[in-house]
Design brief:
The complex is a heterodimer of chains A (351) and B (159). Chain A is α+β, with helices and mostly antiparallel strands. Chain A folds into 2 domains: 243 residues, Glutamine synthetase/guanido kinase, catalytic domain (Creatine Kinase, Chain A, domain 2, 2-Layer Sandwich), CATH 3.30.590; 89 residues, no CATH class. In chain B, helix 2 packs antiparallel against helix 3 and helix 4 runs antiparallel to helix 5. Classes of the chains: A alpha+beta (351), B mainly alpha (159). At the A-B interface, helix 5, strand 6 and strand 7 of A face loops of B.
Chain lengths: 351, 159
């Protein structure tokens, strides 16, 4: 089993209660191959073999570090699901895993998806608000891959990708944020409207339609052509900082206007996790969100809960994460029964 | 399934409407779809942002010129219109956007392009340094540009 927790869950940085992680993804294709959705199984396998050789070569290892290739066909269903929950592979890859692979760096902060929508999707994932470092990591691996493969590139449109929305730089920056106050008060709607009209997207962290789930959101750029990578990054960073300021102000207001309501919500969430017998992922994550807010406000000081514990639950509370934690596969009913134990053990709140 | 509008013909088209996280699905037959088409296209266009509209406009042009075929993968203008997906690098010809790529350029086999871009970037930086009166640093960058320009010419002469 792949049971390691990814690096991006280490709570780091100034606003670690609000920004959880930063991520960069580069979409790249090989010049003389059809794009993956038009390739046959043999050609896809050939590409997997070729990448395996590339990452094994000494020059690649020297500059990009040690990486290993996992062929999705050779993994168990649970392992694939765990990769999805760790945000390393896409839902599309989970459904159609044949002849696809993922190249993983040692601490999983860098990975390359093979034969997803594009031949290569280089992604780096690090904790805190640090788009620049994430970009540097991905860019370096891109430079190394480029020495082995000729990329599909158009003089006017830049890097050519299978979906026209990624053409140009092929880059997507995204930041995972915890925004309980803005989502409680509805302030997020206005932010969402502005972001959308300016070419940015805000989605629930657990994928399409999961808005509000644990108050976790990911914010990313939508446009990739005609603007330099660094400019897209600075623009997004500016917006993220702006949202941080708004979230903080909103928290201050809430705790000033309704201190008892807020305290009640937070302590109830704590009680819920401490005493519940059955827990769903959603309920667990919503409680964790309130506890996170409580920790930031110093309300749960005696419980010695830190952000690292809370972050690890983002992955472990999900179905495959939970099964990985307990080292066995379980039915949904069994998971619901064991999930409270996970929360108690991770947060060290016995009961 | 029977068309939900005329309740006579076999339904062939499925329309999904998403609002407030609620999903509504209607199944209709091609005849009813044709009647609804004008109405639908009108409302869809209102929702799409300008960039997206550009794609749509281009697609309409391609419908007229359906002889347009990608020489590498054989995708036709009509297929592109339906899937809006590139099958190979040469499908880039279907794209019609006004913007020009800025940013990273692959180095491999595009060395010259890479150097030209690098010179452009360094010249920008040089201007900035001069404006900030950082002349010592500017001199370094100026020499770097000179070297790069020299390399570029050498390459052209040798190739």
């Amino acid at each position: 089993m792949i049971n390691k927790l990814p690096n991006w869950l280490n709570a780091q940085g100034q606003d670690k209660d609000i920004v959880i992680s930063s991520r960069v993804r580069l979409a790249r294709n090989i010049d003389d191959l059809l794009f993956p959705h038009r390739m046959n199984a043999d050609d896809k396998d050939k590409l997997l073999d070729s990448i395996s050789e590339t990452i094994g070569s000494s020059s690649f290892k020297k500059d990009a570090g040690n990486m290993k290739l996992l062929k999705l066909d050779e993994l168990s269903g649970l392992d694939r699901e765990f990769l999805l929950e760790k945000h390393l592979i896409s839902p599309n890859m989970l459904d159609n895993y044949h002849n696809r692979g993922i190249v993983l760096g040692l601490d999983e902060s860098i990975s390359i998806l093979i034969n997803e929508e594009d031949h290569f999707r280089i992604q780096s994932f690090i904790s805190g608000l640090n788009l620049k470092d994430a970009f540097v990591i991905a860019d370096k691996v891109d430079d190394e891959l480029e020495k082995f493969y000729n990329y599909a590139y158009h003089e006017k449109y830049g890097y050519i990708t299978s979906c026209p929305t990624n053409i140009g730089t092929g880059i997507r920056f995204s930041v995972m944020m915890h925004l309980p106050a803005l989502s409680m008060t509805g302030g997020l709607k206005e932010i969402q409207r502005i972001l959308k009209s300016d070419g940015f997207a805000i989605r629930g962290f657990f994928g399409e339609g999961s808005e509000g789930y644990g108050s976790l959101y990911q914010i990313s750029n939508q446009f990739t052509v005609g603007v330099k990578e660094a400019d897209i990054m600075l623009d997004l960073e500016k917006r993220i900082n702006n949202i941080i300021v708004k979230e903080k102000a909103c928290r201050d207001r809430l705790f000033k206007q309704k201190p008892y309501v807020m305290q009640d919500m937070i302590f109830r969430a704590f009680g819920n996790l401490k005493y519940s017998v059955l827990l769903t992922t959603k309920e667990g994550m919503n409680n964790v969100s309130l506890i996170r807010l409580g920790v930031e406000r110093g309300l749960l000081f005696d419980e010695c809960i830190d952000y690292n514990q809370l972050n690890s639950l983002i992955v472990l509370a999900q179905p495959a994460g939970l099964q990985n934690y307990f080292g066995k596969s379980m039915s949904p009913d069994e998971r619901e029964k064991l999930r409270p134990r996970l929360f108690k053990e991770i947060l060290k709140i016995g009961g | 399934m029977i068309c939900q509008v005329c309740k006579k013909n076999e339904a062939a088209i499925c329309i999904v409407k998403m609002s407030n996280n609620k999903k509504e699905t209607i199944y209709i037959c091609p005849t009813c779809a044709n009647k609804m088409e004008d109405q639908l296209i009108g409302s869809i266009n209102q929702l799409l942002n300008p960039i997206f509209e550009k794609f749509i406009k281009k697609n309409n042009n391609l419908e007229i010129d359906n002889n347009h075929i990608c020489p590498t993968c054989g995708q036709t203008g009509r297929e592109w219109q339906e899937t809006n997906t590139l099958n190979c690098k040469d499908c880039a010809q279907f794209i019609d956007i006004e913007v020009i790529h800025e940013g990273k350029i692959p180095r491999n086999n595009k060395e010259e392009l890479y150097v030209i871009n690098l010179i452009k970037e360094k010249e920008c930086y040089l201007k900035k340094l001069i404006a900030e009166e950082k002349y010592e640093e500017a001199a370094v960058i100026r020499d770097e540009i000179k070297d790069l320009k020299g390399d570029c010419i050498d390459d052209k002469q040798t190739s």
